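Appendix B. One record, verbatim.
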Amino acid sequence: MGSSPLPVNEWSHVAVTLDGGTGTLYVNGQRVGQNSAMTLTPAMLGSLGNVWLGRSQYNDPTYAGGYQDVNIWSAALTAGQIGELAGTRASATSAGGGDVISIACSETSGSTLADASGKGRHATLRRTWGLPSHPGFLAAYPETQFIELESRTTPDYYRVWAPYYTAHKILKGLLDAYTATKEPKALDLAVGLCDWMHSRLSRLTPAVRQRMWGIFSSGEFGGIVEAILETHGHSRKPEHLELAKYFDLDSLIDACAANKDVLTGLHANQHIPIFTGLMLMYNKTADERYLRSARNFWGMIAGTRTYSIGGTSQTEFWKAPNQIASTLHDTDAETCCAYNMLKLSRELFFKEQNPAYMDYYERALLNQVLGSKQDQDSAELPLATYFIGLQPGAVRDFTPKNGTTCCEGTGMESATKYQDSVYFTAEDNSALYVNLYIPSELNWADKNLTVTQETTYPLEQRSKLTVAGDGQFELRLRVPAWATAGFTVRVNGTPVDGQAVPGTYLNIPRAWKSGDSVEIDMPFTLRAERALDDPRVQTLMYGPVHLVARDSRTTFLPFSLYATAKLNGDLAPAVQPVAGKPLHFTLSGVELAPFLEGTADAFHSYFRRNEPKVVFGGVDSGVTNPARANKTTLLDDVWDAASFVNKPELLKRVAQVNSTWIIEGALSQADADRIYRCAQRAAFTTPAGEIDDLQAVADAARTAGTMTAEAHAMLGARLEAARKALAEKSTAKAVRYLKQYLDFAGRSLDNQALQDILVSGAQALIVRLTS
């Protein structure tokens, strides 16, 4: 009972009596605690240099309240007298004012509080409203906001709204002013502000600081660690580095370092900047815990809590991981979160050149960030989004409704991201990373050369780099993870050797000469990405671009896409391009448009996948597309394995999936046979094209030594005969040669896997030609 906190917004009477070795605590006249074995007495304290009310010589939080009166008696009062004191001032009770000290605290001016005991122990007011406790104080709030935060145990942003968050804005503004103007007063103010913060926070126990930073909103401090470390770079004061460490939220840092996801229910943008600060702390301290924590945290967001546009959070908070379809709402994807995730991705890339960081960066930049600004001019309003609704029929809100939010300010800052992280150089200047395909010019002073990038990407699916100046370095081109349809590079018109693997960098070492050009082609494919918690709810991506359906209906639109999919999984045949409007298509009579266009049209970011029948290459099997309890379908299983290099590879996958679904009891053998025959008949290319695919497989096998020269020649001769027969429009003759091919392949090939591919391909072509 004696440990319960006092209520706020009301007066409480607190009294302590010491009678011999017994100390008693009273609250509002009621005894709430007693210690009968006390050894400390006032006499043992000796002569005191300072006697404070509201603080102590220990690192306790400062008292954030007021006093009605303060009295000390030389003898312990009775419980009855304590009860009287709880109801009125001491001067009106039988105890009277304190005979050691009696301060009424009723003065309305001046800095002296009079002692009425007759002992002359007057008090001096050391802090008034807004008077700083240490030189350097500069804030948008009186210091009482910082004081109250130190004693708060529960969130209440109506009483304390993130004083250190605002301190970050002021501090960063001063630093930017100094960078831009070299005005020494700006730096002096920044250094003083950090001195003041250190003076406050150094007096608090680690437990108090941990409690502060864990309080929603009130304890939010934004990017203050980054700004403090920037100040430290100028001041070199060790206490400034110590100050930055005071903001470590250890419970979160330790959990993420152990790859333990504790983010559910946390305020998103309160915590993302913490990890950007940790990356800079790692730069200063080399503490691996910081790097490990930031890396794992990034994966918890980019991997399981990111919407198709690259944004995260719902109503500013994180839900449980993998919850996408269930969180589609009008308050999704706070814009500040995307901005800060870009900063974190950039910092992580400096330490680990993992292209996944830049794949995410491209997604968030080209979709949420670019689409968060309305495509019109305004001299009065930022016209930038706060939340982005992702529910069906959402309309982007580009104007502040209840005063300008943080995201409108961030929205203006976001424009700087279009020139940010396009290029990085290796630490030793031996390599140049091209991370983003954006029209730009890089002045590489250390190499005394310039790289110019020309493109309208993503309106076009290519880019061109031109080098001015000579130098030896390795050009590292990011091959986007989505670039499954190819990524071809030509230097001065000559194709570059080496395989461009999606999700990696293509490295081109060279002694570069002035005028060298690098042309990059990266065809976009249309793909659907499933919500992690409901595979039927999906979103469309065209290369790096998120496509939305412009439609005012407020229920999920049903779209079917598999029926005409290409062998590489490209769903583009299902949509029709709109002439004269790049990145615009129609699907089932609905316009698809890039999210990056900042319009106020109603849109659908997610749709309901509807694939009622098993159809391949426009050929309908007549079999209903079966679904599991987890809502995935047979066609999902087939196309999850794309890209298929040829029809035999698709047929192999269809056979495997059919077998699995039969074993699960979800597909009959008869329906499996119909599905397989449908896949055989499907037209992904011309019959002559299928013959070319079979010949390509044989050529590769001969090169690899898994087919003899004799078998290669015999099989090739029959395929050539079938090709000529098709050219002569003699289908029967072509089928006869293909049957001979089948017979010879079955008898002459020892490699079973090779035989299966060639036989299944030839059989499929026969079925197609005879159906």
